[in-house]
Amino acid sequence: MKRYRYIFRGLVQGVGFRPFIYNLAKDLGLVGFVKNIGEGVLAEFQGELKSTAAIDEYIEKKLPRNAKIESIEKYEIEPNFDESDFYILDSSKGKISTIVPYDLGLCEECKREFYNKGHRHFMNPFISCINCGPRYTMIESLPYDRDRTSMKEFEFCDDCKKEYYTPNNRRFNAQSTTCLVCGPHLFLYSFVEKKHIEGSNLELLGRVCYEIEKGKIIAIKGIGGFHLVVDPYNKEVVERLFRSKKREGKPLALVCKSIETVKKYCNVSEAEEEIFNSPRCPIILFEKKTDDFLHVNGGLHTLGIMRAYTPILDYILTKTNRDLLIATSANLSGIPMIIDEDEALEKLCDIADFVLYHNRKIVRRCDDSVGFVLKDKFVLIRSGRGFAPITFKLKEKTVDKNILALGGHEKTTIALKKEDEVILSQYLGDLDTKEYIDFYEGSLKDLISLYDFNFDYIACDYHEDYFTTSLAKKIAKEQNKEVVFVQHHLAHIYSCMLEKNLQSCIGFAFDGTGLGLDGKIWGSEGFVIDGLEAKRVFHLQYYPLVGGQKAIKEPVRLAYYFSKIISPEFAESFFGENEFLHQIFKTAQTFNYPLTSSMGRLFDIVGVLLGCGEKNSFEVQIPMLLESIADRNESGFYIFLMNFKHEIEINIVDILQQIIHDIKRNINRRIISAKFHNTVAKIVVEVAKVLRENYNKDIVVLSGGVFQNKFLLSKTVSLLEGEGFKVFFNTVFPINDGGISAGQVYYTLQLLKNC
């Protein structure tokens, strides 16, 4: 008789792991127990065992589909002859280091039961099991047990209790288990009638479907917040949604039932299909193959589509017989997504016609995740439902200190380095309003509490005017901690280096804005990095940010300025007699505007010149349109000269001069856009070749918001690989500013390693 103790670490809570271990023991005729502990799952197996081989083989072959084991600690202990069975015991908290489970989309088994008239879960809007349903958004504390979730308010009926405690049932120990008898209920409020609509769950869902077909806007409470659900085939209601949300053409997310629907409108790769069908259910930016839904996607070349990840969304699609529905976040400009029904009833009265909500509390706000697929890898643009919290296992544990990283200012996230893990929060927004700052501060407290986190160092952006930087200094002073200031673009590169476990590379960080170490506004930075040592070796030649911060939203200021310098005749004919722009140009002759090397602003300028608009109604609107019009078959590029005076520099005037020349020649703007994209990719390659020669490095890292441009990223990777470089880009943390906090962690680790 032998007894073995196992400690499983990884994604082993909220994925049916304890029931799996229970059934393992039963199948192998073993006694003992299994329970959640703070750092994962603890199990003890006892029986007539020569070794652990049978247990290990069972685990390897039958591991639950959503479980992910990071490590297994096992050893033999003394037998306990008082046991006669195998038990699932109550959890013990202990230290918290387990991977917190993310929310999972509706599984096929639950979907079949939902539509099965003979099943007890028929039309249960909250149907779920060990393989699907809310997790992160309903957890109040760890370990992951029902009494530590928002489901604790709903006491089991006899049938649910039986499912929950029956070992061979799919809902055995599934914390989100509930039914029509004992679970949450739906409520429907009509802003038109100014009252709640009476009816059963099914009747209310039927009314919602009817109103969507009539062209109404419905706010629906989901897993991580409210969506606004609209019929995308009704152009009038879509236009009304744009107006009421003040989105002005910002693409709206779509939801559908199956990948076959996506294939009707978009090109779909095998990797995209796999991610679409996965339990994560992110919004995937698919390349569209039709001109359908131009009124929904702002005229872009992509459609953002996710799988219906809740029974309610799936049912509405089925009942309305729509291929697709709009399901966009319910929030006002500058305010985080709404998660509370009282707030929804108060703030959505001028947007929605009805509010469908339920009485299960959303513990933490979590937007839908967004990204695209490149080289069979998913590139995150926004980390949210299905991905957050991201837990990354460090390849080596060289620093014992814990680190809190507060991120940047836009697309903010928070990162924790705890022991041998880096944990990244969900998307926390742009910290321009009190509401987003409150959300950020609340999320910071929540993460620290959830992970029982104590830190030794706090990392933040180098920019002193960022709220996160001020907060870091405030916390450091209060708690007597040391602050590590990390330059913005270095943090971009280090975020990817962390993912790939790199110590040395050539790194390119292209974005719109980040304070440089010389006090200027950086945005097109090339580095040579060895551990902590980072040398800036490339950037676009500095140019004046005409209009200052206003140039970001109104890049026509910059476009006119450079047009006037390059060709006054072209400027007058292209922009017309515009006294406002003329005055801006005159001011720029005498006023010392801040200098920038921003690649993002260059994309803005070219976009204006190619007729993609004069103002960014939302962030990177013009660069997105510029990417959309690019001819994918064009291989030409513009000539550029590298200045080797100090760092390698390239003057954007030379490139803009050639673009204006092509515009004068009436070259198709699709060709010009493609040549410009190719030029930026070519710049990276030619600079990298010089750096390889000078520094003997052949690893290139690409990061930063400009590389959200899939066409540019794909072209750059392809050209670099064609020159023999090993190329890496973010595939774990967001490639934009959402990955900054992770980069701050890795930079701080390098700093501490060298202390």
Automatic annotation (TrEMBL):
Keywords assigned: Hydrolase, Ligase, Metal-binding, Zinc, Zinc-finger
Name of one Pfam family that matches: zf-HYPF
Pathway: Protein modification; [NiFe] hydrogenase maturation
GO MF terms, alphabetically ordered: ligase activity
Cross-referenced InterPro entries: Acylphosphatase-like_dom, Acylphosphatase-like_dom_sf, ATPase_NBD, Carbamoyltrans_HypF-like, Carbamoyltransferase_HypF, DHBP_synth_RibB-like_a/b_dom, HypF_C, HypF_C_2
EC class (word): ligase
Matching Gene3D superfamilies: 3.30.110.120, 3.30.420.360, 3.30.420.40, 3.90.870.50
Catalytic activity, EC: 6.2.-.-
Family listed: Belongs to the carbamoyltransferase HypF family.
PANTHER family named among the record's database cross-references: CARBAMOYLTRANSFERASE, CARBAMOYLTRANSFERASE HYPF
UniProt-recorded name of the protein: Carbamoyltransferase
Species of the source: Caldicellulosiruptor naganoensis
